[in-house]
Specification:
119 residues, mainly beta, seven-stranded mixed β-sheet, four-stranded antiparallel β-sheet
Length: 119
């Protein structure tokens, strides 16, 4: 099992920046995909960005060019640099870790960190 703890959320004006961090501990060697998800009030949780063990990265269209996902080489910290923030980015942001294969995996979640973007 993997333990995840997010930090770095807060209140920012539109156009501003925040950097989220996710501290990773536990069975780190089993992780093959890590991601950032978000959930806005009244909406389903959605994928924001993910990074695989081979370094490949995926973003949803609404954040591409504004957000950057990265990790340290030891898989101990995952980051999400968020620039040019918009009010629509307001949500609770969650860090996730998938352990196992692409078809048979366990997903662990952090507790979430609130990001609020004012207009």
């Amino acid at each position: 099992q993997v333990q995840l703890v997010e930090s770095g959320g807060g209140l920012v004006q539109a156009g501003g920046s925040l950097r989220l961090s996710c501290a990773i501990s536990g069975s780190i060697l089993d992780i093959n995909v890590m991601g950032w998800y978000r959930q806005a009030p009244g909406k389903q949780r959605e994928l924001v960005a993910l990074i695989r063990g081979d370094g490949s990265i995926k973003y949803i269209d609404s954040v591409r060019g504004r957000f950057t996902i990265s990790r340290d080489n030891a898989w101990t910290t995952l980051y999400l640099q968020m620039n040019s923030l918009k009010p629509d980015d307001t949500a609770v942001y969650y860090c996730s870790a998938d352990s196992g294969s692409d078809t048979d995996y366990v997903r662990d979640w952090g507790q979430g960190t609130q990001v609020t973007v004012s207009s």
